[in-house]
UniProtKB/TrEMBL annotation:
Claim: Acyltransferase is one of the keywords in the record: yes
InterPro entries in alphabetical order: CAT-like_dom_sf (IPR023213), Cmp_AcTrfase (IPR001707)
Phylogenetic placement of the source organism: Bacteria, Pseudomonadati, Pseudomonadota, Alphaproteobacteria, Rhodobacterales
GO MF, any single term: chloramphenicol O-acetyltransferase activity
E.C. number: 2.3.1.28
Organism of derivation: Yoonia ponticola
Transmembrane segments: none
Key words, A-Z: Acyltransferase, Transferase
EC main group: transferase
Protein name from the UniProt record: Chloramphenicol O-acetyltransferase type A
Amino acid sequence: MTETIVDLETWPRAAQFQWFRSYDRPHYATTSRLDVTRLLARRDAAGINVYRASLFAISKGLHAVPELLMRFRGDTVVHHAQVDLSMPVPTARGSYNYAYVPYTPDFADFDAATKAILTKTADTDDLNAVGEGKDNVAFLSCMPWLDYTSINNAMPHKDDCIPRVNWGKYVPEGDAWKMAMTLEVHHALVDGQHVGAFFQAVQDALDAI
């Protein structure tokens, strides 16, 4: 795990970091609708797996925004060079386990590695929940049954600063196809402009697959 300590003396957001650390409810979730028209066309033309493609686009979005790779531990803020994606994987017995997918900037490499990881995870009985002190991850969850308008996530405590990403059902809108996606973050580390940059990077990645 490669991480660097953020110098609070020179970090432009140090005051905002300290301010929002004092909040009892410092998390906020933003939902936006993304265009998946081209992705679905590629699914039909090239056999692209849209779930793994969505994972890849989310990973690209997270790694395009430095603030989404930051975590704090007490008063220490660190920046990870890379984070893993963690998502629930359905099992044959009707439950789920957690998988961990490393960041890979090339879609073909990511797709092959992710397919293998998800297949292996579905065949295991260990929940494999993230361990205490491991924060170089982002938590993802797909809700393909719903075209939702808002969502938030269970948080263990107010200092949990690991981003959560949810996304929903693909639905037609005129000649296009859209899906809802939500990013939930800790305001001590992430502002609105960073959320906007994430959604733009995800959209760019979806369009480029």
